[in-house]
Amino acid sequence: MTKENKPEFVTVYKAHGKLDAESIKGFLEAQDIPAFLDPNAIGQIYGLTVGDLGQVGVMVSSENEARARELLEAMESGEFEDEVLMGSPVGVEENVEEPAEIDQRKRVLFLCTGNSCRSQMAEAIVNHYLPKEWIAFSAGSEPSGYVHPMASQVIQDFGIVHEGYSKPVDEFLGQEFDVVITLCDSAREACPLWLKKGTIIHLGFADPALFEGTTEQKLQVFKDTFEAIRATIISYLEDLG
């Protein structure tokens, strides 16, 4: 899939925290509409420290937008009384209680060129293995617009739930990070100046997508890359405390 023909996603619901968003996501998927949570929403950031407060967007593909909104309106009118769902459809103004405390976890951003393999793995690894100390994000200097299927498979094979998507670094404009880690030379050279307020380091890994061989051989290279990233990144972040 190329960047030009990648599916577009729209936010059709704003839930009050990740748990509520998961309920909405499950409701839509029960109606055969694939749904995703906004990985950068405030509810994700505050979720582990203040009981899943904050807003989390629920997204669907543009082709499913009309049907999703119709179902959500029916849900709001009480048509689905057996569903325990909270939140409000996008466009409905409600007073959202501010989180009681600020997330104290450190923030790390992983950068590579396409944001399809290495940086996706690194983001998934940190959020899975170090969820109490760190919150990880990823982006690309030239995002490919998709996550490599073998990267997704390897992440899943290691028992990690990851809903990342390929995105440009400018999506984080105005945000600050404790550490920015570049994973390839081109990303290191293209790292924007506004990101250079915190610590920036380079931990290079070969791109597994460039390996040529059988399917089994390629998958093994992706696994080896995952394990190398896991060992290196976890050790480095643990040393930072």
Task: Describe the protein's architecture and organization.
This protein has about 240 residues and is of the alpha/beta class. The chain folds into two domains: about 10-90, 2-Layer Sandwich (Alpha-Beta Plaits); about 105-240, Rossmann fold (3-Layer(aba) Sandwich). It has helices at about 20-30, 40-45, 65-75, 120-130, 150-155, 185-190, 215-240; strands spanning about 10-15, 35, 55-60, 90, 105-110, 135-140, 180, 200. α4 links the parallel β5 and β6. The chain is globular, with a radius of gyration of 19 Å. Residues about 40-55 and about 85-90 have low confidence and may be disordered.
CA-based gyration radius: 19 Å
| Number of spatially distinct domains | 2
Major β-sheet strand ordering: 2-3-1-4
What is the helix fraction of residues, given as a range?
A: 25-40%
The biggest beta sheet is recorded as: 4 strands, antiparallel
Provide mean pLDDT, rounded: 80
CATH-defined topology of the largest domain: Rossmann fold
| Strand coverage percent | 15-25%
Q: According to CATH, what is the class of the largest domain?
A: Alpha Beta
The helix count comes to: 7
Give the end-to-end Cα distance, rounded to a whole number of Å. Answer: 39 Å
Keywords:
241 residues; 2 domains; globular; four-stranded antiparallel β-sheet; alpha/beta; Alpha-Beta Plaits; 8 strands; 7 helices
